Amino acid sequence: METIRLGKKVQDITFEGLSPNNEIKKYKLSDFTGKWMVVFFYPADFTFVCPTEIEDFADKYDEFRSAGAEIVSFSTDTAYAHRVWKETSPAVRKVRFVMGADPSGRVARYFGVYNEETGLAERGTFIIDPDGVVRSIEVVDGNIGRNASETLRKLKALQYVREHGGEVCPARWEPGKATIPVRIDLVGRI
User: Fold this and answer.
1) Active site (annotated) includes residue 50
2) pTM of the predicted model as reported, rounded to 2 decimal places
3) What are the domain boundaries of the chain?
4) Does residue 71 sit in helix, strand or coil?
5) Which stretch of 68-77, 110-119, 160-169 has the lowest confidence by average pLDDT?
6) CATH 3.40.30.10 correct for 14-146
7) How far, in Å, CA of 44 to CA of 75, rounded?
8) Which residue out of 18, 50, 81, 101 is catalytically annotated?
9) How many CB atoms within 10 Å of residue 56?
């Protein structure tokens, strides 16, 4: 299986995951077609930084849903480990999105975030549009946590650009702020 690339459509991968109501189920990426999707990988359950990220995304989940997006998290743990972690961690108990299980590393390899030396996923975040095309890829060092608010901002910028062809979003763009029209007369003047 080829590694995913920016601007390419994701393959319809099947995976096991922990559902929002704590059931272990089979899912496919195509289950989320028609919605924006945020897929984020983290190294492992029962660690230090990971529950802070999970909690941050859980706290912002309603905002992602309001923006028309669904979240799926992944680690190389099993769905059974996810279930025990969710039952024992106050931070993870807040999760209302699918927690994907990837013990073989197959999904992480496809997304290009599998660390062959550790057998764990790197901290990768992917935003996929309703057509299944990858629009954003970010991978950060395992020692720092990501900010769900920044992922939400990027999602909204990608949505804006998709809906308003011919405009781009500058650095620190937020909904309601000015965009930049793509015009040749502006080259070198910004």
Assistant:
1) yes
2) 0.94
3) 14-146
4) strand
5) 160-169
6) yes
7) 6
8) 50
9) 18
